[in-house]
Design goal:
Blueprint lengths: L1 H26 L6 H12 L5 H7 L4 H13 L3 E5 L5 E5 L1 H21 L5 H16 L4
Antiparallel strand pairs: 1-2
Helix pairs in contact: 1-5, 2-5, 3-4
Amino acid sequence: MYGELQTLGRAVKQAQYRQHRALERRLATVGTTLAQWDALRAIGNARGASARALAATTFQSEQAFGTLANRLVAQGLVERRQGHGRRIEHHLTPTGERVLKEGHRVADEVLASCFAALSAADRAALLDLLRRVLADEGV
């Protein structure tokens, strides 16, 4: 039993690793990294969000997200605005919007390739299974 579960865990990790490497390679062609594009995507999905919320969404510590956000600001991809109280809000600049859009195109191409061996029904079943695993709060 241990061997089967460990093999399953390793297969999930290998698929993720391969996908991340491919995304990192291809996103470089549009001038960004996977971490940067993921941050742009999070900001695009939650305009005006705080660093704390964006850090959680991107699976980073607040400090790591702050460092990344500083780079995005320096590159002209993100701007910070004063929010309510001490809250600092994050927004995409027009350049950030363009990089995000190009990143979506690249990600769609990469992910289509990563999952090409699966039918649409297989992909839907895999997504359903992963959602069920992620819904289990016991881990």
